[in-house]
Amino acid sequence: MADFELAPSLLAADFGYLMRDIDAVANSVKYLHFDVMDGHYVENISFGLPVIKSIRKYTDLKFYTHLMITNPGKYAKAFADAGSDIITFHVECSDDPIALIDEIHSYGCEAGVAIHPDTPIEKILPFADKCELLLVMTVRPGFGGQDFMPESLDRIAAVRKALDETGSTAWLSVDGGINSDTIKTVYDAGARLFVTGSAVFAKEEPGKACSELSACITA
Ligand code: DX5
Ligand code: ZN
């Protein structure tokens, strides 16, 4: 049994054919990653609640929502109601991450805490045994198709150590620049839930791309 999962990021899909692209990976993965961007916390604007709510009607995949927005607490309930299974917010955007984790749990969702590459990794370690997912950004949040930041490897290893020391079974997720060149090294550093956008949806056959990425680890 593999001890890792892929979470294809729809940011790299064709927004005119979202269900076609989701169907292309549906038999290869368990998670779908939704990048919600507000134009404030990050430069870019992507999509939001109505898109998630609509897609929820057509697939049972686990929805891993990544809120790149200021004031995530204001919208946590709405993203839960829209059908998110995991709601991940940035530690930089919350004054009280523990309270927000508790609130997300109260909606029946799993909670994730994400960290920007510029933020000291110590900021996320206190949540190792408080939530279901820690997301170490491996590019600057805001855009797909960027190169993996190699300095992330030490940060991933530090989070892995904190999770193991606390006995936490939370996912150690990574996001940005994950492809066939980087995924094995990142796995070896301790990551287990791999968000991957362009390495899946920019390919001719997204389902096959998922199998090939997995094979980079298991081969
Ligand atoms: C970037 C997003 C990522 C993005 C990853 O801010 O959080 O999820 O879609 O894209 P790739 O895999 O192309 O780097
Ligand atoms: Zn993301």
Task: Explain the overall architecture.
With 219 residues, this protein is α/β, with parallel strands linked by helices. The chain has one domain (5-218): TIM Barrel (Alpha-Beta Barrel). Helix content is 32%, strand content 20%. It has eight helices and eight strands; from the N terminus they run E-H-E-H-E-H-E-H-E-E-H-E-H-E-H-H. It has helices spanning 18-25, 49-56, 76-81, 97-106, 152-166, 183-189, 198-201, 206-218, and strands at 5-8, 31-37, 62-68, 86-90, 110-115, 133-137, 171-175, 193-196. The chain has an eight-stranded parallel β-sheet. The structure holds D-xylitol-5-phosphate and zinc ion (ZN). Zinc ion is lined by residues 9, 33, 35, 66, 175, 195.
Classify the helix fraction into a percent range: 25-40%
**Largest sheet data:** 8 strands, parallel
Tally the beta strands: 8
Q: What general outline do the C-alpha atoms trace? A: globular
Task: Please compute the radius of gyration using only Cα atoms.
Answer: 16 Å
What integer is the average pLDDT? 98
Write the CATH architecture name.
Alpha-Beta Barrel
